[in-house]
Fold:
Amino acid sequence: MSPMPAANAKDPLVCNGVALRKASRRLTQLYDTILAPGGLTVSQRSVLVHIERAGSPTMTELAYAMVLDRSALAHNLKPLERDGYVVQKRDASDGRSRRVELTPSGRRKLEQTNRLWRIAQSRFEEVYGVERASALRLALAEIFSDAFAEAFGRSGPAAGLAEGGPVSDSIRSRQRKSA
Structure:
């Protein structure tokens, strides 16, 4: 079998969005391969993790936490509901809202895939480097933050996003508190 053609070296340097999407797709492929024996994709596992952390979030809360729109979240929940890992229930205090909960089967599935996820995470850090991986997660947290989205939406220079700016400092402060 012939080797895969080399990617155009200039391509990832042209557009930040394209480079991030390519990296995201590659990591998804790599993590999905390792998670496959557990019967979940990295995206499905992420949904279960977010639900577990939040307890019983509303659809809106879960979509916000995952930086997804509600229709994409609903699409991602369908196979998890079908397989009995999550349920949606009407909010007791607001019948218009729906809450998402892990089922006992969903909790077991999450526990079963923890070992596989740790293998994927360790392999990433082994190949990319522990310190670089930590710095990457920090940079990505800044990019998916509300502050970044707000600054990106303003016209003119995005003040505060540079190293040491208020957005960067805010993200670092939250990272230290959660560690």
